[in-house]
Amino acid sequence: MPAPKTPGQTPGKTTTPAAHLATERKPWKKKTPVEVVLEQAEKLKAEIAEGEEDLKNKRRQLEKFEQARKLFEAT
């Protein structure tokens, strides 16, 4: 049995908070090629910094394992 239709309500369209927020969005601003390249460069720098930090942590962990291995070999 289909749901009763109410006047002024179209199927598939509901009034949700998300729909309300869609009208308050900032207008889309097209980026210049220079802005795109600079943004990509910043993202790459951030990824590299994160990778270097991860590598430092792994080197510290390896050093601890090496020290533990030396202790085990000494006994």
The low-pLDDT segments are none
Number of helices, where a helix is a run of at least 4 consecutive DSSP H or I residues = 2
Overall form: elongated
Describe the sheet with the most strands: none
Kindly provide the radius of gyration, computed on alpha-carbon positions and rounded to a whole number of angstroms: 28 Å
Termini Cα gap? 80 Å
Percent of residues in beta strands: under 5%
* Class from helix and strand fractions: mainly alpha
Helix content: 55-70%
Along the chain, the helix and strand elements come as HH
What average pLDDT do the residues reach? 84
Q: Care to count the β-strands?
A: 0
Fold and architecture overview:
The chain is an all-alpha fold and 75 residues long. The chain has a domain at 32-74. Helices cover 64% and strands 0% of the residues. The protein is built from two helices and no strands. It has helices spanning 17-22, 33-74. The longest helix is centred in the C-terminal third of the chain and has 42 residues, at 33-74. The model has no long low-confidence stretch (mean pLDDT 84).
Brief characterization of the structure:
The chain is mainly α and 75 residues long. It is built from 2 helices and no strands.
Output the keywords:
75 residues; 2 helices; mainly alpha
SSE blueprint and pairings:
Blueprint: H1 17-22, H2 33-74
